[in-house]
Design a protein that fits this description.
The protein has helices spanning about 10-20, 60-65, 90-110, 135-145, 150-160, 165-175, 190-200, 205-215, 225-245, 245-265; strands at about 5, 25-35, 35-45, 50-55, 70-80, 120, 180. The chain is α+β, with helices and mostly antiparallel strands. The chain has 3 domains: about 5-105, no CATH class; about 120-180; about 190-265. The strands form 2 sheets. A 5-stranded antiparallel sheet has the order 1-5-2-3-4.
C-alpha cells in the first residue's frame, strides 16, 4: 500500500481513517514538526486498528495523541512493520476524538509555552504579585520541579503528567507570577549538547573538528554566540566531517543539530 506524504496536506485523522477502511497492518513512520520542535516516531496498525505508538519516552497512548499536534512533516506507511503485542486498546474513533482535542489545546498554549525546551524558574518574590494563589496537587508537583535547570520536557517526564497537562500547569504558574522563563545560557545548554552528540556519534576527533569550526566563525564567548554564527559553524563542520566520516554518518546528524539550534533560539 503506497501511502506517504506531508502532514500539512494529509492530516493524521485522514491517515487513520484510510488505513482503517483498507484494514491494513503495518506502521506509519512519522517525521513531524510543530513550532520549534521536530519529532520522529511510529504509529502501528493491525487490521486497520491503531494498536500502538512510539515517540521518545512517552506512553503509547500519549505518543499517539502527540502525533495530532504535529503541523507538518513527512509520513510513510510500511506494511512490513509489525507490533507483536498491542499496547493501545482504544478504538480509532476515541483516539481521533481525543487527538483533535489535544491538538486544539496545544495550539492555545503555544503563546504561553512556545517550546518544550523552555526552562522555567521560581520568581524570587512571588508575594509581590499581591494575589492569593491556591494550587492543586498536580500544580504543587510541577512547582517542586521548577529549579531553573529542568526543561518543560524534563518536568513532564519526571512528573508523569504528560506534555499537555504539564504545559497547562506551567502556563497557569506563569500567569500567577510564581514562576518565570529563565534566560538560556548557551554555554550550559546548546554547546555541551553538541559536544555529546558529536562525540557519541563520531568520536573525539569529530569534537575537535566542531570546536575548530566555532573558532573559524569567530565564536569566542559561547554564551554570546548568535544563531547565524552557530549555523555557519555547523556548515564548516559538515564540510570537514563529510570528508572524514562520509555522508551516511554526517548529513542526518548535522540536520538534527541545525533543528536543535532553531529549537533553542526560538524558545529564548
Amino acid at each position: 500500500m503506497a501511502l506517504e506524504g506531508d502532514l500539512s496536506e494529509f492530516q493524521l485523522t485522514d491517515i487513520i481513517q484510510l488505513i482503517d477502511l483498507s484494514k491494513k497492518t503495518g506502521g506509519v513512520y512519522i517525521q513531524g514538526r510543530r513550532p520549534h520542535e521536530q519529532l520522529t516516531g511510529w504509529l502501528y496498525f493491525r487490521d486497520g486498528k491503531v494498536v500502538g505508538a512510539k515517540l521518545d519516552d512517552l506512553s503509547p497512548l500519549d505518543a499517539a495523541y502527540t502525533f495530532f499536534t504535529l503541523t507538518s512533516g513527512s509520513f510513510r506507511f510500511n506494511d512490513d512493520v509489525r507490533l507483536d503485542i498491542p499496547t493501545i486498546t482504544q478504538s480509532n474513533e476515541m483516539i481521533i476524538m481525543e487527538g483533535i482535542m489535544r491538538q486544539d489545546a496545544w495550539m492555545k498554549l503555544q503563546s504561553q509555552v512556545p517550546s518544550l525546551s523552555m526552562i522555567p524558574r521560581l520568581v524570587p518574590n512571588p508575594a509581590a504579585t499581591g494575589s492569593e494563589i491556591n494550587l492543586e496537587a498536580d500544580e504543587w508537583r510541577i512547582l517542586t520541579m521548577v529549579n531553573g535547570k529542568n526543561t518543560v520536557t524534563q518536568i513532564a517526564q519526571r512528573s508523569g503528567l504528560g506534555e499537555l497537562r504539564t504545559c497547562e500547569i506551567i502556563a497557569r504558574l506563569l500567569q500567577s507570577g510564581l514562576i518565570e522563563k529563565r534566560e538560556l545560557d548557551l554555554s550550559e545548554t546548546l554547546f555541551p549538547e553538541f559536544d555529546n552528540i558529536v562525540t557519541s556519534a563520531l568520536g573525539n576527533s569529530a569534537r575537535g573538528i566542531l570546536n575548530e569550526s566555532y573558532t573559524r566563525v569567530g565564536v569566542q564567548d559561547y554564551s554570546k554566540a548568535t544563531r547565524e554564527q552557530i549555523i555557519s559553524a555547523l556548515d564548516h563542520f559538515e564540510a570537514a566531517a563529510l570528508r572524514m566520516f562520509g555522508a551516511s554518518r554526517v548529513y542526518g546528524l548535522v540536520n538534527d543539530m541545525r533543528a536543535y539550534v532553531d529549537q533553542i533560539f526560538d524558545s529564548m
